[in-house]
Recover the amino acids of this structure.
């Protein structure tokens, strides 16, 4: 469905670049809302799921700062999300010997169990939503998004 139809605009957008950006934002918002609905069923927010998901796939110890860089959120946001996850018993902060200000963040057994339960449901939704696109389409989309992000970095 076109954005003009979906948003019930009175006339079509005239700037194709603007229309492309609005399509990206609208699609990302819809995906985020769908994810939030799923995660809420498991007592999680989207940010909490992203932390659990990231920690599941790390191969070396990560600090809160490492986590923040990968999730592209502020330090305060990471702290707040980790506080909530720690309260739920899903993650733990482990002191780094020789540095009282740095902690490594690890999934607890309960955190591993929960992400093992949520991730397959999440992946099945992602697969259903993207089922109409070929692997080539998806790889092309990935390359296009990388091109856009590169241009945004170059603007900085």
């Amino acid at each position: 469905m076109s954005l003009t139809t979906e948003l019930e605009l009175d006339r079509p957008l005239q700037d194709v670049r603007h229309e492309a950006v609005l399509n990206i934002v609208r699609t990302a918002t819809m995906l985020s809302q769908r994810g939030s609905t799923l995660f809420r069923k498991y007592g999680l927010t989207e940010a909490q799921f992203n932390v659990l998901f990231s920690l599941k796939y790390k191969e070396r110890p990560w600090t809160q700062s490492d986590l923040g860089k990968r999730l592209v959120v502020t330090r305060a946001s990471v702290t707040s999300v980790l506080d909530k996850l720690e309260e739920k018993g899903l993650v733990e902060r482990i002191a780094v010997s020789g540095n009282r200000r740095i902690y490594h963040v690890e999934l607890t057994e309960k955190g591993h169990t929960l992400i093992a339960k949520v991730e397959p449901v999440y992946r099945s939704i992602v697969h259903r939503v993207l089922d109409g696109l070929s692997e080539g389409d998806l790889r092309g989309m990935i390359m296009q998004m990388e091109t856009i992000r590169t241009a945004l970095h170059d603007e900085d």
The chain has two domains: 1-41, 44-155. Helices lie at 3-6, 16-40, 46-57, 64-71, 75-87, 109-129, 135-155. The two ends are 34 Å apart (CA to CA).
